[in-house]
Amino acid sequence: MRIDKKRLELSIEELGRIGQTPRGGLTRLALTDEDKRGRDWMVARMREAGLSVTVDQMGNIFGERAGAAPLPPVMMGSHVDSVPTGGRYDGQLGVLCGLEVIRALDDQKIRTRHPVTLAIFTNEEGARFQPAMIASGVMAGKIALEDAYNARDKDGIRLVDELERIGYLGAEPCVARPFRAYLELHIEQGPFLEEEGLSVGVVEGIVAIAWSRLTIHGVQDHAGPTPMRIRRDALVAAAEVIGGVRQIAREIGGDLVTTVGNLVVAPNIVNAIPGRVTLSIDMRDPLDATLDRARARLESIVREACEQEGVRYELEHYWRVPYTPFDRDVVDTVERAARAAGARYRRIRSGAGHDAQYMAAIGPAGMVFVPSREGRSHCEEEFTPIADIEYGAHTLLLAALDLAGRA
Ligand code: HGY
Ligand code: MN
Ligand code: MN
């Protein structure tokens, strides 16, 4: 019972060319023309494999391989959208290894008791539309369909209009559907597996995640004639906050991570005092209580920085996902599969969010990690050696077969 390494490598190469950047990375933002081409490529491969393909109201794509009995499917999924100048493994590997599992079952003419379904979730990255994992969030009943439809990108374009424009506004209701188990293979996006010379991570859970948006209103004015004593500089207050966000992680320590990744300055020219600044704050920790402490610290840092500069602000906490432990039986199944695949592995926790986080809210879920070279991800340097990918895909195959049962 093996996967076909060469065929899998080819599919990574082919899909990776859609939205490829000159430096060999990937820019395929959700619901852009590149995303449409990536989706179309995957749907064609699903149809070639004889899967029955459906698309739901959030553009999630499902390809089902029939089982011997009308039972809830074993679902393998991930995403094909990327961050700007990202890598060709984040998300892609999960859907391509899922496709390879289905192809390997066909090669060996194996009939499973439960159907096996390959799923592709819309806008997992939250790079174009926010928040991240928006479509699995709607499916899990954590995000209202209307709110997701009205999410707008930086040009004010609505998510639902883009779904329609690229032809992926499906009719299937985007609601929780029963599944035997949900499995997601994904790159670790951290350094541990590679540092320890391991090929597979048996993921036990995913950290809690909190996203906030800070808007600071200063007084836009001329950079020359305006004396320092009367300035209300929104960017000076923002700079204090950015240093404070790093300070929160230093103070609390442990596994807390804090990031300001997005900063928009207006009018953003040399000779005008910034009147308006928005910035993002991403905070994550395995403990929800620690995230609450970090959020309280953030609120006092923002208040002090803005009082100091005499500027107004709005601080909006607009996305929160709790620490998510995976289903014990599924985790044990993945561990048995890693062992049977002959992989060097260990149990691990995910610092990145995944659609599996929302799927775990509606059924038994688990993940298989493969290493990231130097732990790098969300960058063009993202890479995973095919030898590790083979172990990961083989683990996914054995876990899926264990959960789906042979007819
Ligand atoms: O933000 C995340 O962790 C994921 O890449 N969407
Ligand atoms: Mn991902
Ligand atoms: Mn990602």
Quick take:
By secondary structure, the protein is an alpha+beta fold. Helices cover 35% and strands 22% of the residues. The chain is elongated, with a radius of gyration of 22 Å.
Summarize the structure in words.
The longest helix has 22 residues, at 288-309. The protein folds into two domains: 5-207 and 323-404, 3-Layer(aba) Sandwich (Aminopeptidase), CATH 3.40.630; 209-321, Alpha-Beta Plaits, CATH 3.30.70.360. By secondary structure, it is α+β, with helices and mostly antiparallel strands. Strands 1, 2, 3, 4, 5, 6, 14, 15 and 16 form a nine-stranded mixed beta sheet that branches. It is elongated and about 80 Å long. The mean pLDDT is 98. It has twelve helices and 16 strands. It has helices at residues 5-16, 33-48, 92-107, 134-139, 145-149, 159-165, 192-195, 234-252, 288-309, 328-340, 355-359, 386-404, and strands spanning 52-55, 61-65, 74-78, 116-120, 181-187, 200-206, 208-217, 221-222, 257-259, 263-266, 272-273, 276-285, 312-321, 324-325, 345-350, 365-370. Strand 3 (74-78), helix 3 (92-107) and strand 4 form a beta-alpha-beta unit. Helix content is 35%, strand content 22%. Helix 10 packs across helix 12 (386-404). Bound molecules: (2S)-amino(hydroxy)ethanoic acid and manganese (II) ion (MN) (2 copies). The site of (2S)-amino(hydroxy)ethanoic acid has 6 residues, from loops. (2S)-amino(hydroxy)ethanoic acid binds at residues 124-126, 132, 352-353.
Overview features:
single chain, 407 residues, alpha+beta, Aminopeptidase, Alpha-Beta Plaits, 2 domains, 9-stranded mixed beta sheet, 5-stranded antiparallel beta sheet, 12 helices, 35% helix, binds (2S)-amino(hydroxy)ethanoic acid, binds manganese (II) ion
